[in-house]
Amino acid sequence: MSDRTVAVVRAGALTTVQDLGRPGHAHVGVGRSGALDPVAARLVNRLVGNPETAAVLETTVDGCALRPRGAVTVAVGGAPCPVRVDGRPAAWGSALRVPAGAVLEVGAAVRGLRSYVALGGGVDVEPVLGSRSTDLLSGLGPAPLTADAVLPLGPVAGAPGPVDTPPWPGPPDVLVLRVRFGPRDDWFTGPALRTLATRAYRVSPASNRVGLRLGEPALERAVPGELPSEGMVLGAVQVPPDGRPVVFLADHPTTGGYPVVGVVREADLGAAAQAVPGTPVRFVPVR
Predict the structure, then answer these.
(1) Do 220 and 228 meet the contact criterion of CB atoms below 8 Å apart?
(2) Who's near 2: CB < 8 A, 6+ residues apart?
(3) E-strand spans in the chain?
(4) Residue 35 to residue 33: CA distance in whole angstroms
(5) 3-class DSSP assignment, residue 282
(6) Given the DSSP bridges, would you call strands 64-68 and 211-213 parallel, antiparallel or unpaired?
(7) Nearest in space to 268 (alpha carbons), one of 238, 230, 237
(8) pLDDT of residue 163
(9) 249, 114 in Cβ contact below 8 A?
(10) What contacts 157, CB < 8 A, 6 or more positions away?
(11) Could you tell me which of 276, 231, 273, 286 has the C-alpha nearest to residue 254?
(12) pLDDT in tens, 8-56
């Protein structure tokens, strides 16, 4: 067996392989997927000398544990969390060397939800439509990690890099999302649009990689009935029949029949991906 592999000792609540996704396939019903916090994924890749497009591990809530067969350079970023190598504290947010056979323990997030683990050479699973990302909605890409799984690593591309960007410490106490109204804002009453622009929402525990689900207040429809299915984009704020908005994230469907009241700027979605249940959310309309 090659020493360019890592064994999964503990898979955690949900750990998936992610790169920057597979854009450009919505016309055949395949979404983008990819890291929910791409800024964090790019940074940890640079720290270990990988191309920014290399596949990393995205953990959710409680991290994971890995044992490399050969020595490997790793970096853990995204949501801050404790990092240990064979039980000894190690650095978060910078490159570190994990010896062959040692256990890298990525602990539970202390702020935010999703941590990212880059390994020198990148996770070298078979690409699907040009990406190694796990898409939980469509089932494309590798399955979420399970204990005792073995992941191949690619060849080392370069030397570890410097910390060229301060590691993001997690989401703010209030998540502010810039939103552009449309294309179906005319399906909602004027008071509903004012509610979206002025009231605070909270992140629902039902949120996942498909979408950031929000609680009350519900948005009142001005147009009853059904809307024919139409294309959906990353950041779309879809409003199902219960009136509670859903902000679409990386694993969102490519079509949908509920009206979209607005679209959140893509630059704000990394913070949305780190928002824990109960986080206050405010929408700020922009042109």
Answers:
(1) no
(2) 69, 152
(3) 5-10, 14-18, 56-60, 64-68, 72-78, 83-85, 88-90, 96-98, 104-106, 114-119, 150-152, 175-181, 201-202, 211-213, 230-231, 236-238, 246-248, 255-256, 260-264, 280-285
(4) 7
(5) strand
(6) unpaired
(7) 237
(8) 66
(9) no
(10) 49, 50, 51, 54, 121, 122
(11) 231
(12) 999 999 999 999 999 988 888 888 999 999 999 999 999 999 999 999 9
pTM comes to: 0.94
Q: Which residues are paired to 246 by β-bridges?
A: 213, 238
The token duo for 32 is: 């983008």
Amino acid 280: pLDDT: 97
The two three-digit tokens of residue 135, written as one number: 């898409």
Q: What is the pLDDT of residues 169-209, one digit of tens each?
A: 566 789 999 999 999 999 999 999 999 999 999 999 999 99
Buried b (16+ CB within 10 A) or exposed e, 7-30: bbebbbebbbbbbbbbeebbeeeb
> From start to end of 134-244, where are the E strands?
150-152, 175-181, 201-202, 211-213, 230-231, 236-238
